[in-house]
From TrEMBL:
GO terms for molecular function: metallocarboxypeptidase activity; zinc ion binding. Pfam families: Peptidase_M14 (PF00246). GO terms for cellular component: extracellular space. The chain crosses the membrane at residues 451-469. Residues 51-328 form the Peptidase M14 domain. This is Peptidase M14 domain-containing protein. GO terms for biological process: peptide metabolic process; protein processing. It comes from the Eukaryota. Residues 165-178 have a biased composition (Basic and acidic residues). PANTHER family: CARBOXYPEPTIDASE D, B, PROTEASE M14 CARBOXYPEPTIDASE. The active site is at E298 (proton donor/acceptor). It comes from [Myrmecia] bisecta.
């Protein structure tokens, strides 16, 4: 076996709060303009978290917000409800509308028409991020390091009529192809789903969401997959990412004012099927069909909380609404997979930017977890939510030598990068490949002249581990790129 020395890739420092302010408001009178905007936004924030907006007011507010905070927001419609009402989405990012090497996270609400508080909470979250993204580290990280999508109402018709179902008389959280008992058409959009469901499915399948959460009412708990079980019994139904789901649910519950202290649910979290089984739900479908680790957040014991309770609901949930996307999108394993260019210099070297090479849509597998994620074809970036712990992770792709690394995901979710050589992950070893299916006229020395394996990484406190994996193409090797799924 031949040992290769790893490289360190140091992140570039982010812009300072002053730079962000200048960029947002321009140099002349920047502080005065900011003061005016903050004053106006604080008044709007108080309003959106104090009363319910009807669908017209909701749409008008979202469009107004996208104009007021245009440097970090845009709005678009996913599609229309049965009655023709638009399903508006807010995207929050320092580059809204652009495709970047950043994770995507979503919050959705009002799936059941008679569970409306999430509508106002998501409007409040957008306002808070607009006000604080230049000064608050949590807000800054959400705005600059990911794309956060907010869908305040999946079921605008149900809200209008104050009923659970949509105008097609369908419970939208029973309208998805069930991954545990899949229909003959599989998990893709079949056309039999309600218009609202089809719109969310197409959006999810067309956008690589790393994680998400759906807001409901009827209890106070963070619910995680599986929602169903193979025998349809009320019992714990463990998904491949059970440990990660429990961790993410606990992140939300622990940051919530009272959820973690629940007397009904230990730690304020529950497995869905252990509470009561749900089939055809969005949560399980998101995980298996979309690769999106999604929670169901039950935020109030009352189905339609009185308006006077909204300010307290907002205060109860704000820290959790900030903690979840950071932990889910940035708190596990993330990085890039690129092809190693020929003639790359070996040895330890400090790089100011990631070495360039062809991005590869490699499969990222974690030993012991029967569920894989893929790097993007555009940038080669990947995001793998994981609970704190040590993992053996492999990047593989057909025609390339796999790269395997043991990594540690720390428990601190703040995400401070450690940039010291002593913190470099152990250097990997290149294993001799299995014999090819047909003879290849090449020697091991010739092969090594053509290819090199580099693994570049930084352990990140709480953020987890940021890696750049350079895969080696060589003759005769074929890796398995199929996503493994549980046998359910």
């Amino acid at each position: 076996m031949v040992s290769w020395t790893a490289f360190i890739w140091v992140d570039q420092p982010s812009a300072s709060a002053a730079d962000s302010t200048a960029q947002l408001f321009g140099e002349p009178g920047a502080l005065a303009q900011r003061a005016l905007l903050e004053h106006a936004s604080e008044a709007v924030l108080k309003d959106v978290t104090s009363r319910y907006y009807d669908n017209k007011q909701l749409a008008e507010h979202m469009h107004s917000f996208a104009k007021r905070c245009s440097t970090i927001a845009r709005t678009f419609s996913l599609g229309k409800s049965v009655e023709g009402q638009d399903m508006w989405v807010l995207e929050i990012s320092d580059h809204p509308g652009e495709v970047e090497a950043k994770p995507n996270v979503k919050y959705v609400a009002n799936m059941h028409g008679d569970e409306p508080s999430g509508r106002q909470l998501l409007l409040g979250l957008a306002e808070w991020l607009c006000i604080h993204h230049a000064t608050d580290e949590r807000a800054k990280r959400i705005v600059t390091e990911m794309h956060l999508y907010l869908l305040p109402t999946i079921n605008p018709d149900g809200f209008t009529h104050k009923r659970r179902e949509n105008s097609g008389k369908r419970d939208l959280n029973r309208d998805y192809p069930d991954p545990i008992h899949p229909p003959e058409t599989g998990l893709a959009v079949s056309g039999a789903e309600q218009p609202e469901t089809q719109a969310v499915m197409k959006w999810t399948l067309g956008t690589h969401f790393v994680a998400g959460a759906s807001m409901h009412e009827g209890a106070i708990v963070a619910n995680y997959p599986w929602d169903g079980s193979t025998d349809q019994a009320t019992q714990y139904s463990k998904s491949p990412d059970d440990a990660t789901f429990k961790h993410l649910a606990s992140v939300y519950a622990d940051a919530h004012r009272s959820m973690h202290a629940s007397k009904q649910f230990a730690g304020g979290i529950t497995n869905g099927a252990a509470w009561y089984p749900v089939f055809g739900g969005m949560q399980d479908w998101n995980y298996l069909a979309g690769g999106c680790l999604e929670l169901t957040l039950e935020l109030s014991e009352d189905k339609w909380p009185a308006e006077e309770r909204l300010p307290q609901l907002w205060q109860d949930n704000l820290p959790a609404l900030l903690a979840f996307p950071i932990a889910a999108a940035l708190g596990g394993l993330r990085g890039f997979v690129h092809e190693a260019p020929p003639g790359t210099e070996a040895g330890r070297k400090l790089l100011k930017a990631a070495p360039q090479g062809k991005p590869l849509p490699a499969t990222i597998s974690v030993q012991g977890i029967d569920f894989n994620v893929s790097a993007s074809a555009t940038f080669g970036d990947y995001y793998r939510p994981l609970a704190p712990g040590q993992y053996t992770v492999t990047a593989s792709m057909d025609g390339y030598a796999p790269a395997t690394q043991v990594v540690t995901v720390p428990a601190d979710n703040i995400g401070k990068a450690v940039k010291h050589a002593d913190d470099l992950l152990p250097a990997p070893r290149l294993r001799e490949p299995a014999a090819p299916s047909s003879p290849v006229d090449t020697t091991w020395a010739d092969l090594m002249q053509r290819a090199m394996l580099l693994v570049i990484g930084i352990p990140l406190m709480g953020l987890g581990v940021l890696q750049l994996v350079r895969l080696v193409r060589y003759v005769g090797h074929r890796g398995n790129t199929a996503r493994r799924v549980p046998a359910r």
